[in-house]
Write a structure and sequence with these properties.
By secondary structure, this protein is mainly α. The chain contains 1 helix and no strands. The protein has one helix spanning 2-58. The longest helix has 57 residues, at 2-58. It is rod-shaped and about 85 Å long. The mean pLDDT is 82.
């Protein structure tokens, strides 16, 4: 009977550790996605500006 309680406690600790690792990975992934989003927006804005400059040549 004592072995069952020890096994249960070990499973709880194991799942708790896995849960903490998953939360850390999600937190780091969220930061990565936020940085990537900023880079994509900057690239889109610069491409849009370059396209406007090309169109500007037609109206001069």
């Amino acid at each position: 009977m004592d072995n069952r309680a020890q096994t249960s406690a070990e499973f709880i600790l194991l799942f708790g550790g896995i849960f903490v690792v998953v939360l850390l990975v999600i937190y780091m992934y969220n930061g990565y996605i936020d940085d990537l989003g900023g880079q994509i927006q900057s690239k889109e804005v610069s491409e849009f500006n370059s396209q406007l400059k090309i169109l500007e040549e037609y109206f001069k």
